[in-house]
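Need the bound structure for alpha-D-galactopyranose, inputs here:
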Amino acid sequence: MKKNIGEYLARHMILFSILYTSFSSTLFAKEDGLARTPPMGWNSWNAFQGNISEAKIKTAADLMVSSGMRDAGYVYLVLDDGWMANERDIDGNLVGDPVKFPNGMKALGDYIHSKGLKFGIYECRGFLTCMKLPGSFNHEEQDMKTIASWGADFIKLDGCYAERNGRLSSVELALYSKSIDKTGRPMVLSISDFGNGSWAWGAKESAHLWRTSYDIYRSIESVYSCANTTAGNEVIHPAFNGLWQFAGPGHWNDADMLQVGNLKNSKEDKIHFSLWCILASPLMAGNDLSSMSNTVRNILTAPEIIAVNQDPRGFQGYKVYQDGILEIYNKPLSDGTTAVLLLNKGDKHADITITWDKIGLKGKQKVRDLWERKDLGEYNNSFTATNLSKHGHMLIKVGTPGTRQIPGPAPVPFEKYAVTRTGATWLSELYYVVKYGDAPKYNSNFNGDTILVNGTKYQKGLGCQNSSRVMFKLNGKADRFIAVVGSDNSYKGNETSRFRVLNEDFFGNQVLFDSGKIKSDSSVKIDINVKGVEYLLLMFEGKKTYGDWADAKVINTEN
Ligand code: GLA
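Answer from helper R.:
Posting the output first, comments after.
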């Protein structure tokens, strides 16, 4: 993608607000009025992991108020893993760890509420949590009822062990969503399944936010990596330019909890915060509030930076430029202005210029520095952030408040990534919606040469290497999936390869086809029923091998 993001956007920069609104918020999303802007709060995990207690959490609640965080918008106090007892009670109900939480969870919820905060609590859809405490599998309705009875307003639902449940993730999430509705208590549902493609396979029908990456840790590299899964091409076809089109009021891509205050210095903390704000990611602070410095507090509560995140239009920022060192993001706002982040990831000082045509503007535009809270004046056609040092950045607001909203880029049309027609659709005609490992090559082997499997050449198909997974949206419109699979003949070694086809995501574990281990000089033909399948996951496992999904296509026989 690199520099052509600019060209791509220029081509697609058309008026589409109406289309976008109907596409992103009404068609597929859970519409219950919750999480209209990205939820803000504090979560115990990044600061304490499982080492939590009533005293610590009450102190955190007190500090959320006294530090000004609550009033800056951080209202959810979320108790992460480690709060529950090892065993359920004799009626199978979840109970809090009696040593860590001697007064029980209801009393804790009451305390949190008495501080004008909202209470969030962690569970897991596997039979165990990630810390191997009781998970909610087979107790979904009962647990949602218990948690609601403690006054919870937010549930973080993890994904450990969910692949053993034997149920599609979309089906499981719908079950949680219904169970929550049944309690009669409004609760935000936050999915934490490590970037399992939830944005693509319909989590937003049931959940308000979903993780887009593996767990964040205390380093700027991890921060950049989480931001990149949300804003870049690491997990989705480059045509999407990140995950922005899957977010909007009520449904958010979650780049994971904040490490602001846990990084090396305030420069790193600031760029981390700016990235989460421009990406409209939920803002769940993860630092120990009892040792928070004024500098960290000022970062977390910076009003004009938070306003970018909480903008009611709910447009997720997207990249308009990247070259591996310099990056520019744009987030059109509700008041007719737009927020632009200019970032230097390189070792050397650099200037970065944003030209107005990349963000749908022209002529003279007002520019405001949001960290400095200072108007910088009017700029003709472009603005340059000068002499930015390593991890240095500027977050600016461009334009005049109160003017017509600036359109964002057009989302990728549905038919470009979903099966919509009768007859044959080759998978290489569709943009994939999730990938892990190396992206497949379209209509060639991984090297870019003609696909050659077991001595036969194929003009169409997907070329993979090593171990990779890729998901396509069949949209319930296909009857059969047909392909020939095997190592590409350009591979001369003896390693075997294995091809599996799953209905929906990895956690659902619904295997429709398994080739077993195939020798490098042979192939297997796939011709399977995929009626009703919404998403098809292709899994290739090979060591240093090239694997081809030759002539991979779906057939819709409907007239
Ligand atoms: C997973 C989640 C984390 C945290 C831990 C708790 O790793 O992704 O955010 O909740 O589990 O065990």
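Comments: Residues 414-556 form a domain with the Jelly Rolls fold (CATH 2.60.120.1060). The chain has a mean pLDDT of 93.
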